[in-house]
Design a protein that fits this description.
Elements: H1 4-14, H2 19-26, H3 30-38, H4 45-55, H5 59-62, H6 82-91, H7 94-111, E1 116-119, E2 128-131, H8 136-152
Antiparallel strand pairs: 1-2
Helix pairs in contact: 2-3, 7-8
Length: 153
Amino acid sequence: MKSMSEILRELRTSKSMTQSDVAKILGLTTNAYQSYERGTSEPGCKALNKLADFYGVTTDYLLGREPLPNPFAELNLSNDDEAAVMQKFMSLPESFRACALELLRELGGAVKGTESVQPTSQSEPEQIQRSDTYTCGELEEIQKESDYNQDAG
């Protein structure tokens, strides 16, 4: 089980923010926020609620009492939001993405056969198309290859 300090550090780094940035947004001192991430102090109820709201997770998740937050809870998942969902999805830690991919694969299969997503080509990884089945590992490999090709190109 992860400690609150580890969870806070992961959430902050997944947003590519500094400790000072988060502290300023939440109305905390930088020293107070740093002490939460170091594990030398814990936030009170008000600060805990602010942190949970800011990171879009539950207080139970921050306290290490539930496994994963729902990273898409605040999104309206219409067709127009697909790009925003993909951007948010790719900003999640790898372990979250693996779980989300597996859940999406299962939900998609339950709703409409065995649908999954894959890039249409190596040169256009941001475009997706519906396909037959892919395992969670296969989708991760497709994404890793896509990331490699973007970095190389």
